[in-house]
Design goal:
The chain is about 35% helix and about 20% strand. By secondary structure, the chain is α/β, with parallel strands linked by helices.
């Protein structure tokens, strides 16, 4: 019944060019910093599409910081206003971490927490968008990504989210760093426009599906509780766009997060005895790995991955663990 209703909503959306989702209340964040060109590109694209956007980003570049956040009760956090509906979250002036302690203040997760729990506390957003990031967030990179973890944090807090990233041309950037950086920057506007098209279409079809669900009778209503982008619960999306001109992009791939990636960091000890974290070449991907996000992105495709803030394994895995550990006592 669910698929039937969804197909009906999609068919109506295709027939009616006038079908539009309502303007969304969106919290926009990132990990490159509140002034980064990527977050500005997405802000402009969302506003141009009619959405209400509140930008709350880290004060400084927090790339690769993952899900780090303030964990000390009473820790002061500086929230500064850049412009109307634009804020930066960072450490207070003069802050130094306690001796012997590594701390993070003003991270992407901090920005989401400030946005949801303070700035938009009385005007809860429909959706959190994180990005667009300078560099792809696929494969193993998703675990360390501040961009993706900001979206995951939002989902944990009950708000669906979309993470957005613009890839890097590794070959070009290794030969000409400036040209490589510029290629990614040039693709950010196209990334932002693509992400907004994804959000707008999903929101329009999701709204139509919910409308049809309200009209349906019987058990179908139990399967109609989709979020603002038409997905169950607080499920969201991870969007990665190649560093290409729009006309060069090879289509759209729907792929899971895999364990293979072009960008691989590994600690190595040099002849001087110093351990450095270096980029190392990836192994040849297996047939299964070629179906996942990183490889599909390397083919020049825009990649969409469904993600969830719930880290709990599925019911089969839960049952297997109970069977294995049955009878265990403290």
């Amino acid at each position: 019944m669910t698929h039937t209703l969804l197909k009906s909503a999609i068919s109506l959306a295709a027939l009616s060019l006038s079908l539009q989702a309502s303007a969304l209340n969106i919290l926009l964040t990132n990990d490159d910093g509140c002034r980064a060109p990527g977050i500005d590109a997405v802000y402009q694209a969302l506003v141009a599409s009619g959405h209400q956007v509140t930008l709350v980003g880290p004060q400084n570049d927090s790339s690769g910081i993952g899900a780090a956040s303030v964990v000390v009760p009473g820790q002061a956090v500086a929230v500064t206003q850049l412009a109307q509906d634009k804020y930066c979250v960072g450490a207070p002036a003069g802050y130094t971490p306690p001796a012997g302690k590594t701390s993070a203040i003003g991270t992407p997760v901090d920005a989401v927490n400030v946005g949801l729990d303070l700035l938009l506390k009385d005007n809860r957003p429909d959706l959190v968008v994180s990005g667009t990031n300078f560099g792809d967030n696929v494969g193993p990179l998703t675990q360390m990504s501040g961009t993706v973890n900001a979206a995951v944090r939002a989902m944990f807090k009950g708000v669906p989210a979309v993470a957005v990233s613009t890839a890097i041309d590794l070959q070009l950037i290794s030969q000409d760093q400036q040209a490589g950086y510029q290629k990614t920057l040039n693709a950010m506007d196209d990334t932002a426009r693509f992400a907004v098209r994804v959000i707008d279409r999903a929101a329009a079809i999701g709204a139509e599906a919910r409308r049809l669900c309200k009209k349906s009778k019987g058990k179908a209503k139990a399967y109609c509780e989709t979020n603002v982008i038409g997905l169950p619960g607080t499920t969201g999306l991870n969007i990665n766009y190649p560093a290409l001109e729009a006309g060069q992009v090879k289509g759209v791939a729907f792929a899971p997060i895999g364990d293979w990636g072009n960008v691989n960091f590994a600690p190595q000890q040099g002849t001087d005895g110093v351990v450095r974290v270096n980029l190392v070449p990836p192994p040849a991907p297996t047939a299964e790995q070629k179906q996942a996000d990183a490889y599909q992105l390397s083919l020049g495709k825009a990649v969409i991955t469904v993600i969830d803030g719930n880290m709990t394994a599925g019911p089969l895995e839960q049952a297997q663990a109970k069977l294995i550990l049955k009878g265990l006592t403290p």
